[in-house]
Specification:
- By secondary structure, the protein is an alpha/beta fold.
- Strands 6-7-8-3-9-10 form a six-stranded mixed β-sheet, with helices on both faces. Strands 2-1-4-5 form a four-stranded antiparallel β-sheet, with helices on one face.
- 38% of the residues lie in helices and 26% in strands.
- It has a domain of 168 residues: P-loop containing nucleotide triphosphate hydrolases (Rossmann fold, 3-Layer(aba) Sandwich), CATH 3.40.50.
- The structure holds adenosine-5'-triphosphate (ATP) and magnesium ion.
Amino acid sequence: MTGPVVLEARGLQKRFGDTPVLQDFSLAVPERQIVALIGKSGAGKSTALRCLNLLERPDAGTLLVDGQTVPTTLTGKALSAHRANVGMVFQHLHLFGHLSALDNIVEAPVHVLGQPRAEAEARARDLLAQVGLQDRAGARVQALSGGQRQRVAIARALCMAPRVLLLDEVTSALDVENIADLQALLHELSDAGTTMVMVTHDLAFVRDGAHRICFMDGGAIIEDGPAHQLLDAPQSERLQAFLGAAGR
Ligand SMILES: Nc1ncnc2c1ncn2[C@@H]1O[C@H](COP(=O)(O)OP(=O)(O)OP(=O)(O)O)[C@@H](O)[C@H]1O
Ligand SMILES: [Mg+2]
């Protein structure tokens, strides 16, 4: 799959104290691609996502969105705009349980982007329909199931009209049926034009859920290729060992 590159990281570095976590992390993601970032616990996958969206500041390296360099020192409104452009869905979702699904989704477009409420709500209802929750717009999030909450969190990120969506461990709290539904949803979003980078430990999910897999070790991507190829014919010893340990 080769569309124009939407998001690119070149040589990102990040250390916490004396510990280097990202060392020369480079990744270019074409439009509509679903990239899965895999690797053992502590490999730096979440840190990489957080650096892409500038929740963490890389110490060095370059970030580009649609070919334009994004200064990693951004603050204020420019930083908010970058985070809207590079949306993120977290494992723990960060939803407001006492608010309705609709109110959770329109919160950032109204308060961060300053969109008129009616406009944001119209878009939120379209997104709720897209994720199969058109009937639950008024339901409080705390009354929704785990899978439904996951969908609200994705709709909330999409309401900012991001160029790319980052998803960190979004399958970890879901049962098998919800995981299959989520896989179908991510493919629908990709077909509709959404570009995604997801971090997951679920190799069964990425086999058919991702177009491409990047294997991280030692703070960098050391193997990168089509999902099936990477899982079925790993080239590096480190990936072979990782897949072996994962029981594949
Ligand atoms: N804010 C922080 N301060 C200090 N160290 C951190 C911080 N965030 C992450 N680290 C360290 O960086 C390393 C990579 O963490 P990260 O969360 O990116 O790994 P991961 O690949 O997402 O792991 P997991 O699969 O367990 O989620 C770990 O050693 C972690 O302890
Ligand atoms: Mg993580």
